[in-house]
Amino acid sequence: MKKAIATLLMLGLTVSMVSGCGSKETTSEPAAAEETTTEDTADAEDSGEEEAAETAVTWAPEKSVSIVCLSASGGGSDINTRAVIDTFKEIGIDTDFVVDYKNDGGGAVGWQYVADAKKDDYLLMCYGFGDVINQVDADMFGVDSYKAVAVVSAEQEVLLSTPQCKYEDFNAAVEAAKAGTVVTIAGSGGVDPITYQKVIAAAGLTEDQMPYVQHNSTGEAIVTMLGNHADFVVAKPSSCISYVESGELVPYVAFQSEHFAAPLDTAPTAEELGLGDIESPMWRGFAVPKTISDEAYAYYCDIFQQLVDSPEWTAEYVDKYAASPVFLIGQEAQDYMQASEDDYRELKK
User: Fold this and answer.
1) Is residue 205 a contact partner of residue 174, using CB atoms and an 8 Å limit?
2) Which SS3 state, helix, strand or coil, does residue 58 take?
3) DSSP secondary structure string, 47-64?
4) Which strands form 232-235's sheet, in the order they lie side by side?
5) Is the pLDDT of residue 28 over 50?
6) Is there a cis peptide before residue 263, judged by omega within 30 degrees of 0?
7) What share of the chain is helix, strand, coil (3-state, %, to 5)?
8) Whole-prediction pTM value?
9) In angstroms, how far apart are the furthest CA atoms of the chain?
10) What is residue 31's DSSP assignment?
11) Cα–Cα distance measured from residue 30 to residue 33, given in angstroms and rounded to the nearest whole number
12) What is the pLDDT of residues 189-239, one digit of tens each?
């Protein structure tokens, strides 16, 4: 799974960098001059005008737009959604967005609400790889139930505990579990259980020795950790960095090949702890109902393109939360999301 999903993320990163930077192929030698006729020029101009007309934004919202959030307040999807709204305001997008939490049933209420929407041009959904995993596991809906607008980032995961944790490092917790002490890990759905399964497999433990307690959001899992009802919590940086900065949580393991940036930089990688290279990348994006009008869809693709092109998004979300700049818009986002679902379905066989 790690290699397959990581490959998808790197593919997305490559595409986004090429698309976002508007790179062009160059050669060391000048191209040979070509004779251009007046007729050729006119044809080219007509073609350009037609293409511009097809992509022109001719619609804008006349009322508030709802963004369905599939996690509870304080979860990764909520943080991502609110960061998007804040960045829209900073870059001059004056549309009013309202967050609508529909996380009951692990997000199933929200999945159905958006999938069943009829010609609603005022509805978005924050949609990530964790949601796709939950949909596949529940055999409910999937990427093709929606129309993708954008992929705006990707994150790896980190294991954390409190400063009062009785284990000096995670290897000490593993040894305690093998000796008969039950060591509990809290987390949410989506990629968190995948990371957990990789951890106990690498450590040679069973689910009874190191059980996993699943919550509706990472925020709820962190509250459990802070209440001393779990020994560790697995989270994405966007969900936990504020707790690390305040000193309430301490990073124990980085689930990526390199150390995270500060304030998560004190965590050794799983490989450094002898657990191997454990990674469970989580992309985050946005989708709309399939029944959306072409005009509204073009508008949302346009404003998300402005978002990912802005230095504000890179500084205030990607860099701030140690995420990767995986930026894809429209059909490229649709293909990327579908590929990740297909990959996960194949790995479940």
Assistant:
1) yes
2) coil
3) HHHHHHHHH------SS-
4) 212-214, 185-187, 232-235, 157-161, 250-255
5) no
6) yes
7) 45, 15, 35
8) 0.74
9) 84
10) P
11) 9
12) 889 999 999 999 999 999 999 999 999 888 899 999 999 999 999 999 999
Which helix (H) or strand (E) is 263 found in, with range?
A: none
Asked whether 253 and 267 are in contact (CB, 8 A), the reply is yes
SS3 at position 234: strand
* Cβ-defined contacts of 167-172 (< 8 Å, 24+): 167/231, 169/252, 169/268, 169/273, 170/232, 170/252, 170/253, 170/273, 171/273, 171/274
Gap between the Cα atoms of 332 and 149, Å rounded: 9
As given in the structure block, the two tokens for residue 197 are: 């399964």
Measuring CA to CA, how many Å separate 270 from each of 198, 217, 273? Answer: 11, 24, 5
Tokens of 337: 């999301």
Compute the distance between CA of residue 143 and CA of residue 335 in angstroms, rounded to an integer: 9
H/E stretch holding 158 reads strand 157-161
- Rg (Cα) of the chain, in Å, rounded? 22
Task: Report how far residue 67's alpha carbon sits from residue 38's, in angstroms, rounded to the nearest whole number.
Answer: 50
Smallest CA-to-CA distance from 255 within 281, 218, 231, 222 is with 281
pLDDT at 308: 98
Q: Which domains does the chain have, with CATH numbers?
A: 2-18+58-155+281-348 (3.40.190.150), 157-255 (3.40.190.10)
Element (H, E) at 285: strand 282-289
Show Cβ contacts of residue 51 under 8 Å, excluding neighbours closer than 6 positions.
none
Strand order in the sheet with 97-101: 97-101, 65-69, 123-128, 282-289, 146-155, 328-329
Tokens 């607008």 correspond to 149
User: What is the distance between the terminal CA atoms of the chain, rounded to a whole angstrom?
Assistant: 12
* Cβ(127)–Cβ(285) below 8 Å: yes
CB 143 within 8 A of CB 338: yes
Cβ pair 230, 192 in contact under 8 A: no
